Amino acid sequence: MTLAGRAAIRERPLAAFHRSLQERAQRKRVPVYAFVELTYGCNLRCVHCYNPTHKARGEMTTAQVRSILDGLHGEGTAFVAFTGGELFTRRDWPEVLAHAKRLGMQITVSTNATRIMREVAERLARVNPLHVKVSLYGATRETYERVTGVRGSFRRFLAGVTRLRRRGVRVLLTSVILRENAHEIDAMRSLCARMGLPFQYSADIHPRVDGDRSPLRHRIDEATAHRIWRDCVAAPALRRGAFPLDPSGAPPTAPEDAPAGPDPCGGTAPAGPFACQCGRSRIVVTPYGKANLCLSVYAPGYDLLAGSVAEGWKALVSYVDHTPATDAHECPACPVSRFCERTSGASFLEMGDVNACVPNHKALATLRQAWHRDAWDRPGRDPRGGGRQGKDPA
């Protein structure tokens, strides 16, 4: 058996479990996955951040967070992703995470790692999250701190990641690719390799949730984004006989049968504008106790502190089911939709309409479709892993 085959045996059962769980939850409309934004407070000032503020004012109390977690548990939530802001700016984070674990929930944590001191790392290790997701903004101090706007943050980031790994906490590094750091993509990959961590990245930059479009100034152009995807995702996938556009790792198919591109929101292809699982199997809770569809779509904004999680979930389901597709919803007829990572959140933030096409996403999808066809049709190349292995298509 090949190494790729053994890897597939190791990796697919977990992916298959989540697909099966998501499908069942979607059919029964159970919020099995929840994102809980504990705070908007943050110690960094990243140039691309989509949060409306860096200050933690009027946010939920510990008791209110616990009550909402109880409500989520009652509705069937099994996985909770705690995020912010920087959640470690909240002093009650140990109590909040411990309460979720007592309810039997599996948790993940997103952080910039700059506040991971020894005691924090030890307490987090005792909580034993599925993983801790850490953002990587550069491979050098100059570049990293050009993004974060805070001197000394690169040193604290490295120290925080080291403390977590020494205590056996599972760490995922995700590089956020911007104009400011795209030149260090290879160096960031090398940094991940030296740490023994897989390289992951995102180039998905949106306006702030308050409508401020300034983060778009830091988005890389489509050609650069495509080149990074080709070099970091597509080419390695083809070399191991996997299809770079299929998150399941399934073998590639002919261009006309290409599956949808990877969707961080667990996308489907419904007739309506919401090509994701939010309002179907996922829910987002803001630091103010509002229930929303996702981290990007601040709707319907149901007040969980005045009502209940059960009522809030019903409001989300109703919002998704009764928001019609308009003439702006081009996805069903779009020739590159199977290669596109557009989400309703991206449409909402950038275009002001959950139905609308996002030009940046369509341009990337067009480049990926062309790359895939070239990979399939190029003489001597069998994208399924057979045939002569030559230079990957540009």
Report on this model:
The chain has helices at 3-28, 62-74, 93-102, 118-127, 141-148, 153-166, 185-194, 222-239, 309-321, 344-351, 359-377, and strands at 33-37, 79-83, 106-111, 131-136, 171-176, 199-202, 282-285, 290-292, 300-303. The protein is of the alpha/beta class. Strands 6-5-4-3-2-1-7-8-9 form a nine-stranded mixed β-sheet, covered by helices on one side. Residues 1-12, 246-264 and 384-391 have low confidence and may be disordered.
Describe, in short, the structure shown.
With 394 residues, the protein is of the alpha/beta class.
CATH class: Alpha Beta
Domains (count): 1
The residue ranges in which pLDDT falls below 50 over 5 or more consecutive positions are: 1-12, 246-264, 384-391
What do we call the CATH topology? TIM Barrel
Please specify the SSE layout and strand pairing.
Blueprint (H helix, E strand, L loop, with lengths): L2 H26 L4 E5 L24 H13 L4 E5 L9 H10 L3 E6 L6 H10 L3 E6 L4 H8 L4 H14 L4 E6 L8 H10 L4 E4 L19 H18 L42 E4 L4 E3 L7 E4 L5 H13 L22 H8 L7 H19 L17
Parallel strand pairs: 1-2, 1-7, 2-3, 3-4, 4-5, 5-6
Antiparallel strand pairs: 7-8, 8-9
Helix pairs in contact: 2-3, 8-11
Structural features:
alpha/beta; TIM Barrel; 9 strands
